[in-house]
Amino acid sequence: MKKIVYALCALGLAFAGCKEEKVIEPGPQNPQIIALYDGEFLRNGDVLAVDVADLPLTISSTVPNVDVGTYEWKINGTVDEDATTGKFEFDSERTGTFPVSLSVISKQGKKSSLDFTVEIEGPYKEGLVIYSGSYAGLAFQSTDTYYDDLMSKVVGDSGSGTVQDIYLEDNVIYFLLSNGKIVACDAQTFNKLDEYGTFSGIATPYRLIKAAEGKFYISTDNMGRDKQGLWVYEKQQDDSWAVSSAPIAGTELAPASKPIRVGDYILIGAGDDIAVIDPATDEVVPHDKNGITISTDRKVTDVLKGNDGYIYAVAYSTKSSVSSSIIKIDPVDFSFVDETEMLEGDAQNKVYQTSYASQSHATASITTDDIFVMGSKGIYKFDCGSKTTSLFASMSFSMWGGDGAGIDYMQMGADKKNVYVGLTNTMSSTIYKLDIATGAKSTLRSNVTGDVSVMSTYQFADR
Question: Domains (ranges, CATH) in the chain?
Answer without folding.
Answer: 2-15+30-121 (2.60.40.10), 287-463 (2.130.10.10)
